[in-house]
Protein backbone atom coordinates (compact mmCIF):
# COMPACT_ATOMS: atom_id res chain seq x y z
CA UNK A 1 0.00 0.00 0.00
CA UNK A 2 1.27 3.53 -0.73
CA UNK A 3 2.39 5.63 2.21
CA UNK A 4 -0.62 7.70 3.32
CA UNK A 5 1.65 10.70 3.82
CA UNK A 6 2.92 10.81 0.23
CA UNK A 7 1.54 13.46 -2.06
CA UNK A 8 -1.22 12.20 -4.32
CA UNK A 9 0.67 13.67 -7.28
CA UNK A 10 3.36 11.02 -6.79
CA UNK A 11 0.71 8.38 -7.54
CA UNK A 12 -0.75 10.23 -10.53
CA UNK A 13 0.06 10.89 -14.15
CA UNK A 14 -0.84 13.82 -16.40
CA UNK A 15 -2.25 13.01 -19.84
CA UNK A 16 -2.08 16.16 -21.98
CA UNK A 17 -4.35 16.41 -25.02
CA UNK A 18 -2.35 18.42 -27.57
CA UNK A 19 -3.56 17.19 -30.93
CA UNK A 20 -5.81 20.07 -31.97
CA UNK A 21 -5.02 22.56 -34.68
CA UNK A 22 -6.64 25.63 -33.15
CA UNK A 23 -8.10 26.79 -36.46
CA UNK A 24 -9.24 30.16 -35.04
CA UNK A 25 -5.58 31.16 -34.90
CA UNK A 26 -5.68 31.02 -38.70
CA UNK A 27 -2.25 31.04 -40.36
CA UNK A 28 -0.40 30.82 -37.02
CA UNK A 29 -1.36 27.13 -36.96
CA UNK A 30 -0.68 26.36 -40.63
CA UNK A 31 2.60 24.67 -39.70
CA UNK A 32 2.12 23.87 -35.99
CA UNK A 33 -0.58 22.72 -33.58
CA UNK A 34 -2.03 25.31 -31.20
CA UNK A 35 -0.17 23.93 -28.14
CA UNK A 36 3.11 24.54 -30.01
CA UNK A 37 2.39 28.22 -30.70
CA UNK A 38 4.86 30.61 -29.08
CA UNK A 39 3.81 32.69 -26.08
CA UNK A 40 5.25 35.23 -23.69
CA UNK A 41 8.61 35.83 -25.36
CA UNK A 42 10.20 32.40 -24.98
CA UNK A 43 7.75 29.59 -24.09
CA UNK A 44 5.12 27.56 -25.95
CA UNK A 45 1.47 27.33 -24.91
CA UNK A 46 1.83 23.64 -23.94
CA UNK A 47 4.53 24.54 -21.41
CA UNK A 48 1.88 25.84 -19.00
CA UNK A 49 0.06 22.51 -18.59
CA UNK A 50 3.35 20.60 -18.42
CA UNK A 51 4.90 23.06 -15.94
CA UNK A 52 1.81 22.97 -13.74
CA UNK A 53 2.08 19.19 -13.60
CA UNK A 54 5.81 19.26 -12.84
CA UNK A 55 5.48 21.97 -10.20
CA UNK A 56 2.58 20.05 -8.63
CA UNK A 57 4.84 17.05 -8.10
CA UNK A 58 3.70 14.91 -11.04
CA UNK A 59 6.64 13.13 -12.66
CA UNK A 60 4.78 10.86 -15.06
CA UNK A 61 3.36 12.59 -18.13
CA UNK A 62 2.16 11.74 -21.60
CA UNK A 63 1.25 14.11 -24.39
CA UNK A 64 -1.04 13.01 -27.22
CA UNK A 65 -0.28 14.72 -30.54
CA UNK A 66 -1.99 14.64 -33.91
CA UNK A 67 -2.22 17.73 -36.16
CA UNK A 68 1.10 19.08 -37.54
CA UNK A 69 2.91 17.52 -34.60
CA UNK A 70 6.57 17.94 -35.60
CA UNK A 71 7.11 21.36 -34.00
CA UNK A 72 5.46 20.19 -30.78
CA UNK A 73 7.36 16.91 -30.64
CA UNK A 74 10.68 18.64 -31.31
CA UNK A 75 9.96 21.16 -28.56
CA UNK A 76 9.16 18.39 -26.05
CA UNK A 77 12.35 16.53 -26.97
CA UNK A 78 14.49 19.64 -26.55
CA UNK A 79 12.78 21.30 -23.62
CA UNK A 80 11.39 18.40 -21.63
CA UNK A 81 14.09 15.76 -21.97
CA UNK A 82 15.32 16.15 -18.38
CA UNK A 83 13.19 13.37 -16.88
CA UNK A 84 15.13 10.34 -15.65
CA UNK A 85 13.54 6.94 -16.23
CA UNK A 86 15.64 5.37 -13.48
CA UNK A 87 13.81 7.64 -11.03
CA UNK A 88 10.48 6.46 -12.44
CA UNK A 89 9.77 9.77 -14.16
CA UNK A 90 9.17 10.48 -17.84
CA UNK A 91 7.34 12.41 -20.54
CA UNK A 92 6.06 10.16 -23.31
CA UNK A 93 4.99 11.68 -26.62
CA UNK A 94 2.11 9.67 -28.09
CA UNK A 95 1.39 10.60 -31.73
CA UNK A 96 -1.73 9.19 -33.32
CA UNK A 97 -0.56 5.92 -34.86
CA UNK A 98 -1.88 2.68 -36.29
CA UNK A 99 -2.34 0.86 -33.00
CA UNK A 100 -5.95 -0.21 -32.59
CA UNK A 101 -7.51 -2.51 -35.17
CA UNK A 102 -6.27 -0.58 -38.17
CA UNK A 103 -7.34 2.83 -36.86
CA UNK A 104 -4.80 5.63 -36.81
CA UNK A 105 -6.26 9.07 -35.99
CA UNK A 106 -7.65 9.85 -32.57
CA UNK A 107 -11.36 10.28 -33.25
CA UNK A 108 -12.09 12.11 -29.98
CA UNK A 109 -10.45 13.20 -26.74
CA UNK A 110 -11.53 10.04 -24.91
CA UNK A 111 -10.32 7.91 -27.81
CA UNK A 112 -6.88 9.51 -27.49
CA UNK A 113 -6.64 8.07 -23.97
CA UNK A 114 -8.32 4.79 -24.90
CA UNK A 115 -5.84 4.05 -27.70
CA UNK A 116 -3.01 4.27 -25.16
CA UNK A 117 -4.51 2.14 -22.37
CA UNK A 118 -1.67 -0.38 -22.54
CA UNK A 119 0.94 2.36 -22.12
CA UNK A 120 -0.90 3.95 -19.19
CA UNK A 121 -1.26 0.53 -17.57
CA UNK A 122 2.53 0.22 -17.60
CA UNK A 123 2.86 3.43 -15.54
CA UNK A 124 1.39 1.73 -12.44
CA UNK A 125 -0.57 4.80 -11.33
CA UNK A 126 -3.68 5.31 -9.20
CA UNK A 127 -4.94 8.59 -10.63
CA UNK A 128 -4.96 10.21 -14.05
CA UNK A 129 -5.23 13.92 -14.71
CA UNK A 130 -6.52 14.69 -18.20
CA UNK A 131 -5.45 18.15 -19.36
CA UNK A 132 -6.01 20.42 -22.32
CA UNK A 133 -2.66 21.52 -23.70
CA UNK A 134 -3.74 24.87 -25.11
CA UNK A 135 -4.54 27.25 -22.23
CA UNK A 136 -2.51 29.81 -20.28
CA UNK A 137 -2.77 29.46 -16.49
CA UNK A 138 -0.90 28.42 -13.33
CA UNK A 139 -2.55 25.80 -11.12
CA UNK A 140 -1.56 23.39 -8.33
CA UNK A 141 -3.08 20.06 -9.40
CA UNK A 142 -2.29 18.46 -6.02
CA UNK A 143 -5.18 20.43 -4.50
CA UNK A 144 -7.57 19.13 -7.16
CA UNK A 145 -6.36 15.57 -6.60
CA UNK A 146 -6.91 15.96 -2.87
CA UNK A 147 -10.49 17.16 -3.38
CA UNK A 148 -11.11 14.22 -5.70
CA UNK A 149 -10.06 11.73 -3.02
CA UNK A 150 -11.76 13.54 -0.15
CA UNK A 151 -15.15 13.66 -1.91
CA UNK A 152 -15.03 10.11 -3.29
CA UNK A 153 -15.85 11.45 -6.76
CA UNK A 154 -15.82 9.38 -9.94
CA UNK A 155 -14.61 12.48 -11.79
CA UNK A 156 -13.53 15.91 -10.58
CA UNK A 157 -13.79 18.68 -13.15
CA UNK A 158 -11.78 21.90 -13.09
CA UNK A 159 -14.14 24.88 -13.42
CA UNK A 160 -13.82 28.59 -14.05
CA UNK A 161 -16.16 31.05 -12.38
CA UNK A 162 -17.47 33.26 -15.19
CA UNK A 163 -20.19 35.91 -15.35
CA UNK A 164 -23.47 34.23 -16.18
CA UNK A 165 -24.04 36.38 -19.27
CA UNK A 166 -20.72 35.15 -20.74
CA UNK A 167 -21.19 31.47 -19.90
CA UNK A 168 -23.11 30.54 -23.06
CA UNK A 169 -19.76 30.13 -24.83
CA UNK A 170 -18.73 27.25 -22.51
CA UNK A 171 -19.72 23.83 -21.32
CA UNK A 172 -21.22 24.68 -17.92
CA UNK A 173 -21.96 22.91 -14.65
CA UNK A 174 -25.06 23.10 -12.50
CA UNK A 175 -23.96 22.19 -8.97
CA UNK A 176 -25.56 21.67 -5.57
CA UNK A 177 -24.29 23.09 -2.27
CA UNK A 178 -21.72 20.27 -1.91
CA UNK A 179 -20.18 21.03 -5.36
CA UNK A 180 -21.66 17.86 -6.84
CA UNK A 181 -22.54 18.37 -10.49
CA UNK A 182 -26.22 17.70 -11.11
CA UNK A 183 -26.26 18.73 -14.77
CA UNK A 184 -23.74 19.41 -17.52
CA UNK A 185 -24.79 21.64 -20.42
CA UNK A 186 -22.90 22.51 -23.57
CA UNK A 187 -23.20 26.23 -24.42
CA UNK A 188 -26.71 26.74 -22.97
CA UNK A 189 -28.74 29.83 -23.84
CA UNK A 190 -29.68 30.31 -20.17
CA UNK A 191 -26.72 29.17 -18.01
CA UNK A 192 -27.43 28.29 -14.37
CA UNK A 193 -26.04 30.30 -11.48
CA UNK A 194 -24.23 28.79 -8.51
CA UNK A 195 -25.75 28.10 -5.06
CA UNK A 196 -23.72 30.92 -3.51
CA UNK A 197 -24.06 33.45 -6.37
CA UNK A 198 -26.82 33.42 -9.01
CA UNK A 199 -24.85 35.88 -11.18
CA UNK A 200 -21.95 33.53 -11.97
CA UNK A 201 -21.66 30.14 -13.64
CA UNK A 202 -19.12 27.32 -13.41
CA UNK A 203 -17.57 26.64 -16.82
CA UNK A 204 -15.48 23.58 -17.68
CA UNK A 205 -11.72 24.09 -18.10
CA UNK A 206 -11.31 20.74 -19.85
CA UNK A 207 -9.38 19.41 -16.82
CA UNK A 208 -10.48 16.09 -15.33
CA UNK A 209 -9.27 13.86 -12.49
CA UNK A 210 -10.19 10.15 -12.38
CA UNK A 211 -8.94 7.07 -10.65
CA UNK A 212 -7.29 5.14 -13.47
CA UNK A 213 -9.16 1.93 -12.62
CA UNK A 214 -12.50 3.73 -12.98
CA UNK A 215 -11.61 5.61 -16.17
CA UNK A 216 -10.18 2.49 -17.79
CA UNK A 217 -13.50 0.68 -17.46
CA UNK A 218 -15.45 3.69 -18.74
CA UNK A 219 -13.17 4.04 -21.80
CA UNK A 220 -13.55 0.37 -22.74
CA UNK A 221 -17.32 0.67 -22.47
CA UNK A 222 -17.34 3.87 -24.52
CA UNK A 223 -15.08 2.40 -27.23
CA UNK A 224 -17.60 -0.41 -27.75
CA UNK A 225 -20.49 2.05 -28.24
CA UNK A 226 -21.01 2.73 -31.98
CA UNK A 227 -23.17 5.76 -31.16
CA UNK A 228 -20.49 7.53 -29.13
CA UNK A 229 -18.25 10.32 -30.45
CA UNK A 230 -15.63 9.10 -27.95
CA UNK A 231 -15.20 12.55 -26.44
CA UNK A 232 -14.91 13.53 -22.78
CA UNK A 233 -17.16 16.59 -23.03
CA UNK A 234 -19.79 15.01 -25.27
CA UNK A 235 -19.94 11.46 -23.93
CA UNK A 236 -17.85 10.53 -20.88
CA UNK A 237 -18.66 13.45 -18.59
CA UNK A 238 -22.44 13.60 -19.24
CA UNK A 239 -22.66 9.86 -18.58
CA UNK A 240 -20.86 10.17 -15.22
CA UNK A 241 -22.97 13.19 -14.21
CA UNK A 242 -26.09 11.12 -14.90
CA UNK A 243 -25.02 7.75 -13.52
CA UNK A 244 -22.12 8.44 -11.15
CA UNK A 245 -20.63 11.16 -8.99
CA UNK A 246 -19.11 14.22 -10.67
CA UNK A 247 -17.72 17.04 -8.52
CA UNK A 248 -16.68 20.56 -9.51
CA UNK A 249 -13.30 21.96 -8.49
CA UNK A 250 -13.09 25.75 -8.61
CA UNK A 251 -9.97 27.09 -10.28
CA UNK A 252 -9.84 29.90 -7.73
CA UNK A 253 -9.12 27.26 -5.03
CA UNK A 254 -5.90 26.07 -6.68
CA UNK A 255 -4.79 28.94 -8.92
CA UNK A 256 -1.16 29.85 -8.27
CA UNK A 257 -0.75 33.59 -7.61
CA UNK A 258 2.20 35.73 -6.61
CA UNK A 259 -0.07 37.86 -4.42
CA UNK A 260 -3.22 36.66 -2.62
CA UNK A 261 -5.15 39.65 -3.95
CA UNK A 262 -4.23 38.96 -7.57
CA UNK A 263 -7.03 37.72 -9.87
CA UNK A 264 -7.22 34.07 -10.91
CA UNK A 265 -5.56 34.16 -14.33
CA UNK A 266 -6.73 31.81 -17.12
CA UNK A 267 -6.74 32.55 -20.83
CA UNK A 268 -7.80 30.70 -23.95
CA UNK A 269 -5.61 32.39 -26.56
CA UNK A 270 -7.54 30.69 -29.33
CA UNK A 271 -8.08 33.74 -31.58
CA UNK A 272 -5.64 36.24 -33.08
CA UNK A 273 -7.16 39.00 -30.95
CA UNK A 274 -6.96 37.00 -27.71
CA UNK A 275 -3.42 35.83 -28.51
CA UNK A 276 -2.23 39.38 -29.25
CA UNK A 277 -3.86 40.82 -26.13
CA UNK A 278 -2.54 38.15 -23.75
CA UNK A 279 1.00 38.74 -25.00
CA UNK A 280 0.74 42.54 -24.94
CA UNK A 281 -0.74 42.38 -21.42
CA UNK A 282 2.60 41.00 -20.24
CA UNK A 283 4.17 44.40 -20.93
CA UNK A 284 1.92 46.06 -18.31
CA UNK A 285 3.59 47.54 -15.23
CA UNK A 286 2.21 44.66 -13.11
CA UNK A 287 0.86 41.96 -15.44
CA UNK A 288 -1.81 39.61 -14.12
CA UNK A 289 0.29 36.61 -15.26
CA UNK A 290 3.56 36.50 -13.32
CA UNK A 291 6.27 34.90 -15.44
CA UNK A 292 8.94 36.06 -12.98
CA UNK A 293 7.75 33.76 -10.17
CA UNK A 294 10.66 31.57 -9.06
CA UNK A 295 8.37 29.44 -6.89
CA UNK A 296 6.22 28.33 -9.85
CA UNK A 297 8.39 28.62 -12.98
CA UNK A 298 7.21 27.91 -16.49
CA UNK A 299 9.72 25.40 -17.83
CA UNK A 300 10.63 25.38 -21.50
CA UNK A 301 13.38 24.90 -24.05
CA UNK A 302 15.80 27.82 -23.93
CA UNK A 303 18.16 28.48 -26.79
CA UNK A 304 21.71 29.49 -25.96
CA UNK A 305 21.73 33.08 -27.18
CA UNK A 306 23.48 36.31 -26.10
CA UNK A 307 21.62 39.07 -24.24
CA UNK A 308 19.52 41.55 -26.16
CA UNK A 309 21.52 44.43 -27.68
CA UNK A 310 20.47 48.05 -28.33
CA UNK A 311 22.59 50.13 -30.67
CA UNK A 312 22.79 53.64 -32.17
CA UNK A 313 22.21 56.82 -30.24
CA UNK A 314 21.38 59.44 -32.83
CA UNK A 315 18.35 61.64 -33.36
CA UNK A 316 15.57 59.52 -34.99
CA UNK A 317 17.97 56.55 -34.99
CA UNK A 318 18.07 55.34 -31.42
CA UNK A 319 17.65 51.72 -30.35
CA UNK A 320 15.05 51.94 -27.58
CA UNK A 321 12.30 49.84 -26.00
CA UNK A 322 9.67 51.31 -23.65
CA UNK A 323 7.11 49.21 -21.73
CA UNK A 324 8.23 46.18 -23.75
CA UNK A 325 9.69 42.69 -23.34
CA UNK A 326 12.78 41.94 -25.43
CA UNK A 327 14.09 38.37 -25.48
CA UNK A 328 17.65 37.12 -25.73
CA UNK A 329 19.45 37.30 -29.07
CA UNK A 330 17.52 40.39 -30.20
CA UNK A 331 19.41 43.27 -31.83
CA UNK A 332 17.52 46.55 -31.72
CA UNK A 333 19.45 48.72 -34.17
CA UNK A 334 18.14 52.27 -34.32
CA UNK A 335 14.51 51.15 -33.85
CA UNK A 336 11.88 52.67 -31.55
CA UNK A 337 9.84 49.98 -29.79
CA UNK A 338 6.82 50.63 -27.56
CA UNK A 339 4.41 48.30 -25.74
CA UNK A 340 5.68 45.31 -27.69
CA UNK A 341 6.87 41.76 -27.06
CA UNK A 342 9.78 40.39 -29.09
CA UNK A 343 10.72 36.72 -29.05
CA UNK A 344 14.21 35.28 -29.44
CA UNK A 345 16.58 36.48 -32.18
CA UNK A 346 14.49 39.31 -33.60
CA UNK A 347 16.64 41.83 -35.49
CA UNK A 348 15.34 45.31 -36.23
CA UNK A 349 17.00 48.02 -38.29
CA UNK A 350 17.36 51.78 -38.33
CA UNK A 351 14.44 54.23 -38.53
CA UNK A 352 11.88 51.43 -38.02
CA UNK A 353 9.21 51.52 -35.31
CA UNK A 354 7.14 48.87 -33.54
CA UNK A 355 4.08 49.74 -31.46
CA UNK A 356 1.93 47.09 -29.74
CA UNK A 357 3.65 44.40 -31.80
CA UNK A 358 3.97 40.68 -30.98
CA UNK A 359 6.99 39.47 -32.94
CA UNK A 360 7.83 35.75 -33.16
CA UNK A 361 11.39 34.37 -33.20
CA UNK A 362 13.88 35.02 -35.99
CA UNK A 363 12.00 37.95 -37.54
CA UNK A 364 13.92 40.69 -39.35
CA UNK A 365 12.44 44.19 -39.52
CA UNK A 366 14.15 46.27 -42.19
CA UNK A 367 14.69 50.03 -42.32
CA UNK A 368 11.87 52.56 -42.16
CA UNK A 369 9.22 49.89 -41.50
CA UNK A 370 6.43 51.14 -39.23
CA UNK A 371 4.25 48.45 -37.66
CA UNK A 372 1.41 48.91 -35.19
CA UNK A 373 -1.05 46.41 -33.63
CA UNK A 374 0.48 43.41 -35.37
CA UNK A 375 1.35 39.74 -34.84
CA UNK A 376 4.33 38.68 -36.96
CA UNK A 377 4.91 34.96 -37.50
CA UNK A 378 8.27 33.22 -37.04
CA UNK A 379 11.01 33.88 -39.57
CA UNK A 380 9.27 36.73 -41.42
CA UNK A 381 11.40 39.34 -43.19
CA UNK A 382 9.63 42.71 -43.07
CA UNK A 383 10.62 44.74 -46.16
CA UNK A 384 11.86 48.30 -46.03
CA UNK A 385 9.28 51.06 -45.65
CA UNK A 386 6.38 48.66 -45.01
CA UNK A 387 3.63 50.37 -43.04
CA UNK A 388 0.98 48.28 -41.29
CA UNK A 389 -1.65 49.36 -38.79
CA UNK A 390 -2.42 52.77 -40.23
CA UNK A 391 -4.75 51.97 -43.16
CA UNK A 392 -7.08 49.03 -42.52
CA UNK A 393 -8.35 48.92 -46.10
CA UNK A 394 -4.82 48.71 -47.52
CA UNK A 395 -3.69 46.18 -44.89
CA UNK A 396 -6.67 43.95 -45.67
CA UNK A 397 -5.54 43.58 -49.28
CA UNK A 398 -2.46 41.64 -48.23
CA UNK A 399 -2.74 40.52 -44.62
CA UNK A 400 -5.31 39.08 -42.21
CA UNK A 401 -6.92 41.90 -40.23
CA UNK A 402 -9.27 41.01 -37.38
CA UNK A 403 -12.49 42.80 -36.49
CA UNK A 404 -10.61 44.49 -33.65
CA UNK A 405 -7.92 45.80 -35.98
CA UNK A 406 -5.06 43.39 -35.22
CA UNK A 407 -3.04 42.44 -38.31
CA UNK A 408 -1.40 39.02 -38.72
CA UNK A 409 1.65 38.98 -41.01
CA UNK A 410 3.19 35.80 -42.40
CA UNK A 411 5.96 35.36 -44.97
CA UNK A 412 3.54 33.81 -47.45
CA UNK A 413 1.34 36.92 -47.26
CA UNK A 414 4.35 39.16 -47.83
CA UNK A 415 5.50 37.05 -50.77
CA UNK A 416 2.08 37.37 -52.39
CA UNK A 417 2.16 41.12 -51.84
CA UNK A 418 5.64 41.39 -53.37
CA UNK A 419 4.60 39.34 -56.41
CA UNK A 420 1.47 41.44 -56.94
CA UNK A 421 3.33 44.76 -56.70
CA UNK A 422 6.31 43.78 -58.83
UniProtKB/TrEMBL annotation:
Q: Where is the site described as Could play a key role in the communication between the regulatory and the substrate sites found in this chain?
A: 66, 105
A Pfam family in this protein? NTP_transferase
Q: Where is the Nucleotidyl transferase domain?
A: 14-283
Q: InterPro entries under this entry?
A: ADP-Glc_PPase, ADP_Glu_pyroP_CS, GlgC_bac, GlmU/GlgC-like_hexapep, NTP_transferase_dom, Nucleotide-diphossugar_trans, Trimer_LpxA-like_sf
UniProt keywords (A-Z) are: ATP-binding, Carbohydrate metabolism, Glycogen biosynthesis, Glycogen metabolism, Nucleotide-binding, Nucleotidyltransferase, Transferase
Q: Which domain of life is it from?
A: Bacteria
UniProt domain Glucose-1-phosphate adenylyltransferase/Bifunctional protein GlmU-like C-terminal hexapeptide: residue ranges: 306-409
Name the catalysed reactions: alpha-D-glucose 1-phosphate + ATP + H(+) = ADP-alpha-D-glucose + diphosphate
A GO molecular function assigned to this protein is: glucose-1-phosphate adenylyltransferase activity
Binding locations of alpha-D-glucose 1-phosphate: 106, 171, 186-187, 204
State whether keyword Nucleotide-binding applies. yes
The metabolic or biological pathway listed in the UniProt record of this protein is: Glycan biosynthesis; glycogen biosynthesis
Q: What is its EC number?
A: 2.7.7.27
User: Any idea what job this protein has?
Assistant: Involved in the biosynthesis of ADP-glucose, a building block required for the elongation reactions to produce glycogen. Catalyzes the reaction between ATP and alpha-D-glucose 1-phosphate (G1P) to produce pyrophosphate and ADP-Glc.
The record's comment on protein family reads:
Belongs to the bacterial/plant glucose-1-phosphate adenylyltransferase family.
Q: What is this protein called?
A: Glucose-1-phosphate adenylyltransferase
> Where is the organism placed in the taxonomic lineage, from the top?
Bacteria, Pseudomonadati, Pseudomonadota, Alphaproteobacteria, Rhodobacterales
Gene name as annotated = glgC
